[in-house]
């Protein structure tokens, strides 16, 4: 296979900080055991976000739909809306996973405080907006690191450069 000598394949992509969301959540709704795992829905009450590229508020009304698999891994799918400080609306769909040893997962599911180095919580957010000044959100790739606190979730978003 031929390679282009102008490419620097030894350099990994850069992660550029975009914003950190502080999302306030309500008590989880336990749906129960379904064919693909235990289903939980966590309503989003609102919140805020701030960072070098984006700031504003998390609007109430979204939710995080979780499936807890037989191996204990939580597959998460959160959908919610952001309003920037300038008034632009951004639709967010954030998919990811959260896993840890069983005792730690049980603490997280109960809403207890667990230090973030005790579990893995990563997501891939995608964004939609009609604001031309924010079109980069709809074209670039992003990854995020999550931290679950008793009444909120912190989500640190990075642009993959």
UniProtKB/TrEMBL annotation:
Note the Pfam families from the entry: DUF3237
- The lineage's top-level taxon is Bacteria
Task: Please name the InterPro entries in this protein's record.
Answer: UPF0311
* Family that this chain belongs to: Belongs to the UPF0311 family.
Among HAMAP family, the record links this protein to: UPF0311
Query: What protein is this chain from?
Result: UPF0311 protein SAMN05192555_11231
Q: Which organism is it from?
A: Franzmannia pantelleriensis
